[in-house]
Design goal:
- With about 80 residues, the chain is mainly α.
- Helix content is about 60%, strand content about 0%.
- The longest helix has 21 residues, at about 35-55.
Amino acid sequence: MDAWLDALHRYGSRVTASELLSEPDGPEEYLSDEQEEQALTELTQLAEELKEADPAAFKGYKGFLWPAHLDRWLY
């Protein structure tokens, strides 16, 4: 439970602090190429933080939500 709460906090903090990731109306519809690259960079950094906080979530265990959630953002 602690790992999940830590990951949730990291995710929320990162998304809230980001102008691109916190856009409520689906920024993917109107991002420039440069903004898209920046968003992907931020998501990659977030994924690395989440891997550190909850490594089991990135080792194929289906009970964790973070890999699936990030996958939706990346595609």
